[in-house]
Amino acid sequence: QVQLQESGPGLVKPSQTLSLTCTVSGGSITTNYYFWSWIRQPPGKGLEWIGHIGTSGSTDYNPSLKSRTSISRDTSSNQFTLQLSSVTPEDTAKYYCASQTGWPLKYDYWGQGAQVIVSS
């Protein structure tokens, strides 16, 4: 059973960089045909896909967030990381990491989510 767990600061000041790590257990982030994603849900709104990193390390981002987003990975620790720069209060949300596979891609495992508040 694959398990994902988000970790990182719960409070970030405006203009700073939000950084979250997802630790994967029960499976490898280098498994073929998998993508490792970040998704968020602002208060009272729907889910928003932020981006993902694939088996080869290639990345893809939501165009609306691309200029501020970076997703990287540490294969030795079986972790992948989200960095979102120049945050504003509008980036306040619950952030989830999840795995995707199949065609069309669908989510199969999710973390429990990490609440991040952007406030001074």
Shape summary: globular
What percent of the residues sit in helical stretches (DSSP H or I)?
A: under 10%
Indicate the structural class: mainly beta
Which H/E pattern describes the elements? EEEEEEEEEEE
How many helices does DSSP assign? 0
Unreliable segments (pLDDT under 50, ≥5 consecutive)? none
Structure, described:
By secondary structure, the protein is an all-beta fold. Helix content is 0%, strand content 53%. The chain contains no helices and 11 strands. The strands form 2 sheets. Strands 2, 4, 5, 6, 9, 10 and 11 form a 7-stranded mixed beta sheet that branches. Strands 1-3-8-7 form a 4-stranded antiparallel beta sheet, with no helix packed on it. The protein is globular, with a radius of gyration of 14 Å. The N and C termini lie far apart (39 Å). The mean pLDDT is 96.
Summarize the helices and strands and which ones pair or pack.
Blueprint: E1 3-7, E2 11-12, E3 18-25, E4 34-41, E5 48-54, E6 59-61, E7 69-74, E8 79-84, E9 93-101, E10 106-110, E11 114-118
Parallel strand pairs: 2-11
Antiparallel strand pairs: 1-3, 3-8, 4-5, 4-9, 5-6, 7-8, 9-10, 9-11
